[in-house]
Amino acid sequence: MKPSPRTQFFRFAMLALPFVGPAMAAETRLAPPLEGTWTLAYADLLHADGRRDHDYGNAPKGLLQIDHAGHYSMLIFSTARPKFAAGEKSLGTADEFRAAALGTSSHFGTISVDAVAHTLTLHIDGATYPNWEGTTQVRKYELDGDLLSYKVPPRANGDVPISGWKRLRGK
Known about the structure:
alpha+beta
């Protein structure tokens, strides 16, 4: 009895896996090259005219964590965010809420790395900017020793956010 076309395809696919697998793995690896904990080195803006400014103030704080399976969590905070005068979040003023929202960028989800194209693909599950939730974003990156940097998609005004992260090493 002659095998069905479907059976023939699966046999071929199983035979081809050892040849295709390693090449594909190099292009779509999960987190291992970036696995670990990173601290924010800078969060800047690149303007269309080439100027570069700080996006989250002069001394922003942040943390990026990436696990072996490709789950990530990223937090950026402006240290210039004012405290709420009432001392209670639910009693904040419109200006306090605005400063808190604009002074924070945080999201989490899964990340994959294409080492050949130098791209990160973020599948965003949750974000302080709700419009990003459920989206996929691709970012060009550079890895220079323990410094990871990437560009975020341009904003409506053409400004391009750029972030730099320094790998934290255990003591």
